[in-house]
Each structure stands twice: as structure tokens, then as C-alpha cells.
Amino acid sequence: MWPQENEGLKQCLSEFKQQQLAWVERLDVTSGQVADPVSQSASNKDAVDPENDFQREMSFYRQAQAAVLEALPKLRKLQVPTRRPDDYFAEMAKSDQQMQKIRQKLKSKQEAMERSEKAKQLRAMRKYGKKVQTEILQRRQKEKKNMLNAVKKYQKGLSDKLDFLDEEQTSSQGNKKGSASQRIKKGPNAKRRYKNQKFGFGGKKKGSKWNTKESFNDVSSFRAKVAHNKGPGKAGKGGKKALNKRPGKRARQKMKSRAR
Asked: From the CB of residue 234, how many other CB atoms can be counted at a distance below 10 Å?
């Protein structure tokens, strides 16, 4: 430290002492060496190695703790509150924008962890599916091999049992039942459901326009004018021709030649 700075600090200290302020205005506490809780004895100045960071910081911590224990009774005696009230409101050290960024970063990390967890689960499910599939294939190959061996034995006359045929029939029936139950449980696919929603569920097409006894007796939709060609734009018996009748081919050709 420079000599001028040292003299300035001493001058400020002497000015503070001359003011003779109360302790509650100064809040200064001076404490010496503190007893080590492990050895239960006051550590000497030479005992703390200044090059050892842990010992140095622990000595600072114990000295600050002793100063607090000495200052708290004085503050309580002067009726100075030392605890923060429950409804105390203080401004945050960090702004809301910075806290929002931190929240977004934490959220993105959480989403990334969830995605990786889902990917792990999918990989595990695929491994399990492959394992089950290989086991089924191996079992089928084993059954096929056993059946071929039984057929060879029967052909050579080494065995007169036909149990492998019954086993094959039962296995095929079981597979058919299983596939039918799977089809029933599975239901229509997405393409079929979309077409059903768009065009309906189909139904009986053949014979849908056939007449029945009820439709034959129902004459509510009968219109006499339409049935006897007496409606608008049609010529009845002895009546006038339709106004918008198209001319014949020869008349159209004559009209084209005139236009030329």
C-alpha cells in the first residue's frame, strides 16, 4: 500500500472517532482469534497458513460468525429488528427479461430431456419387438424341422405315427383364429374410415331401384302434366310446337351458307 493512501485512511479513521457516533450508527464489531471447533482451542496467528486457501477462508468464516454472535444481543437490546418480515418486498437482482430467458432455457432443456427419454423408450421397444420376432421365427423353424424329421421317419418306415399332421392342423387353426381376432380388433384402416366418412358406409346396391308393393301403390309423386307432355316447353296433342326447338341439320347448313 502506498504511504499517501495509508495516511488518508488514518485521517478518515481519526475523523470518525472524533464524531463520537453511537454504536447503532457505526455497527462495528472487533473480534480476535476464534477457537477452532475441532481442537476447541484458540488458533494462533502462525497456525493459519496464508498459502492454504481452505484454512484461510475457514478462519475468516469463524471470525465473521463470532462477530455476528456478539452483535445480535446488542441489536436485540436496542430493539432493532434483525429478521426480515414475511411481507417484505425487495427488488430482484436480475431483471424480468433475464429471468424469462433463464426460464426458456430451462424449459428447452427439459423438452430435450423428454425427447431423448422418448427416443430411448422407442429404441427399447424396437429391440424388444425384434427379440420377440426372432423368437417366433426360431420357434417356427424348429417346428418345421421337427415335422420334416417326422415325415422322413414315416416315409422310411421307422415310425407309424401321424401325430405331426394333427399338430399341423391345430397350429394352422390357431393361426387362423388369431388372425381373425386380430382383424376384428384392428378394424378398418385410415383410408377406409376416410372413404366411409366421405361416401357413406355402402350397403345394398343390387336391386335398389326395384319396385315394391308399397312403392307401386304410392302415387303421391305422380304429375299428370309431366306424364302427358303438357308441361312447359312441350307440345301436346294438337298444340303448338315448343318455342326453343333446335333446327335440323339441313336448316343449320343453310343458315351457315347465308352467313357466309
From this structure: 13
